[in-house]
């Protein structure tokens, strides 16, 4: 049996890519030329915001005062989990050194980048959790300057809970600016900010494209665009939970794909019957997003067995991958392409999105085939160093001279020759290409 598509997407995240590219490229060029004033113009155009951009301490304090105590406690709970997980990950990459050959030592040193620019999305929803995920990891990495930027609401500014989260997680600057203009402000060093060395954080297709275009002059974490999610479910999965979980991630936006992959046709049919009712039951904005995402981007695929399900999932390389099937250890071992994996019904993508401690800034649109999500490591440069004694350099110099000469790189070879001549006068070396 080949794979059977009970539902096939009519659109993919690449559908409007060239239009988005042209729009973003021209906004970036405009802002690079027109600096702060041009960025303000775009904020007025896209977000109807004309207020202060770089938040003052008084503005930050006033926003924090507006956040209810219970929500503050929840934000601190999530921050603590993300911080401790980031610290654990940081400990896995450390400075090391070894004596490569006698007298010749080579080492690795881990250095955090100076300035991190953290994008916190806020067009449709107030992504408090994204502020926690990005700022906390930058802070644990040891970045000296951390800027959080997020779209302001007209007449209000950045959502107070986002300001509170960015502040307690360690942001040094908070910028009331979203979209391409926010990304540009951090990259070009507008509003008195230092130029970012790395841009991190998720966002819509405009934000993701801005990061993609700017990559090279600034580092980026990855392409973390519109959310996507895949659920692997077998015959024993609870159809209501599977359907609820699919809808939970389709609400992100009209362009958020969700996919169900199963080897049980009956389960697939049950889930497809349930989804429209669950979408109807959502508040208006969420309903509109999920309705369009389910109609245009969702897929339901019946595979012949679990081997085929795993292969199918790896082809999608989803941002979020959930397994609601027997033998979770088998799946953990088998699956290779995902941003974050949720094993069993007892956990769910929403937990990881908001509070578990694993990062929710994750690769989308298949990028999980080559990268994982945001972690403390994305801010850390792993560099190398070396030093040698004169005796220790001898064997390396001889090999270098001969290899360089064989390559035709006489200048390189002579850098070795002069050292051999200086350190070992009177000794003869055969440093010819065929020596
Ligand atoms: N991959 C990941 O790890 C995560 C991804 N996300 C994704 O982040 C996204 C958030 O999107 P939004 O709510 O829209 O917030 P957003 O903050 O990413 O985008 C809002 C900004 O988009 C700009 N914009 C809107 N229309 C535009 C246009 N026509 N031309 C140029 N700029 C325009 C505006 O300047 C506005 O400030 C969703 O797609 C969600 O799925 C969210 C969290 C995590
Ligand atoms: O793409 C993601 O990771 C989002 O699901 C995270 S959140 O739900 O917007 O917090
Ligand atoms: Zn989510």
UniProtKB/TrEMBL annotation:
Catalytic site: 319-320
Cofactor(s) recorded in Swiss-Prot or TrEMBL: Zn(2+)
Domain of life from the UniProt record: Bacteria
Annotated residues for binding of NAD(+): 119, 181, 204
GO MF entry, a single one: histidinol dehydrogenase activity
Catalytic activity entry: (2R)-3-sulfopropanediol + 2 NAD(+) + H2O = (2R)-3-sulfolactate + 2 NADH + 3 H(+)
The UniProt record lists the keyword Zinc: yes
Sorted UniProt keywords: Metal-binding, NAD, Oxidoreductase, Zinc
Cofactor binding notes: Binds 1 zinc ion per subunit.
EC annotation from Swiss-Prot or TrEMBL: 1.1.1.308
Residues bound to Zn(2+): 249, 252, 353, 412
Keyword Transport: no
Family listed: Belongs to the histidinol dehydrogenase family. HpsN subfamily.
Function noted in UniProt: Catalyzes the NAD-dependent oxidation of (R)-2,3-dihydroxypropane-1-sulfonate to (R)-3-sulfolactate.
Alphabetized PANTHER family for the sequence: HISTIDINOL DEHYDROGENASE, HISTIDINOL DEHYDROGENASE HDH
Protein name: Sulfopropanediol 3-dehydrogenase
Organism: Tateyamaria armeniaca
Gene encoding the protein: hisD
């Amino acid at each position: 049996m080949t794979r059977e598509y009970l539902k096939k997407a009519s659109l993919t995240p690449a559908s409007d890519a060239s239009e988005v590219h042209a729009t973003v490229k021209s906004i970036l060029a405009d802002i690079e030329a027109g600096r702060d004033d041009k960025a303000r113009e775009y904020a007025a155009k896209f977000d109807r915001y004309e207020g202060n951009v770089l938040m003052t301490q008084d503005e930050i304090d006033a926003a924090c005062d507006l956040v209810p105590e219970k929500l503050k406690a929840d934000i601190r709970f999530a921050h603590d989990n993300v911080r401790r997980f980031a610290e654990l990950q940081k400990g896995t990459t450390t400075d090391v050194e070894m004596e490569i050959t006698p007298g010749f030592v080579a080492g690795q040193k881990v250095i955090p980048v100076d300035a991190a620019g953290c994008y916190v999305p806020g067009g449709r929803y107030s992504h408090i959790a994204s502020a926690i995920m990005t700022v906390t990891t930058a802070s644990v990495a040891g970045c000296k300057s951390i800027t959080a930027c997020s779209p302001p609401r007209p007449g209000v500014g950045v959502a107070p809970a986002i300001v509170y989260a960015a502040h307690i997680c360690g942001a040094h600057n908070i910028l009331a600016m979203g979209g391409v203009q926010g990304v540009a402000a951090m990259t070009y060093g507008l509003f008195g900010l230092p130029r970012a060395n790395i841009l991190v954080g998720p966002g819509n297709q405009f934000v993701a494209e801005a990061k993609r275009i700017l990559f090279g002059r600034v580092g980026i974490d990855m392409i973390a665009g519109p959310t996507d999610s895949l659920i692997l479910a077998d015959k024993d999965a609870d159809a209501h939970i599977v359907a609820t979980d699919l809808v939970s991630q389709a609400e992100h936006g009209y362009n958020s794909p969700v996919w169900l992959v199963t080897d049980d046709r009956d389960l697939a049919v049950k889930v497809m019957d349930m989804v429209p009712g669950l979408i109807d039951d959502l508040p208006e904005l969420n309903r509109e997003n999920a309705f369009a995402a389910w109609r245009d981007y969702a897929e339901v695929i019946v595979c012949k067995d679990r081997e085929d399900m795993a292969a199918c999932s790896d082809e999608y390389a989803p941002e979020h991958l959930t397994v609601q099937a027997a033998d979770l250890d088998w799946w953990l071992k088998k699956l290779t392409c995902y941003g974050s994996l949720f094993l069993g019904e007892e956990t769910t993508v929403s937990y990881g999105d908001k509070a578990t401690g694993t990062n929710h800034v994750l690769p989308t649109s298949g990028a999980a085939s080559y990268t994982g999500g945001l972690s403390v490591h994305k801010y850390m440069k792993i560099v190398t160093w070396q030093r040698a004694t004169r005796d220790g350099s001898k064997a390396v110099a001889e090999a270098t001279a001969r290899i360089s000469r064989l390559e035709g790189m006489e200048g390189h070879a002579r850098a070795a020759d002069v050292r051999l001549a200086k350190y070992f006068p009177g000794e003869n070396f055969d440093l010819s290409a065929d020596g």
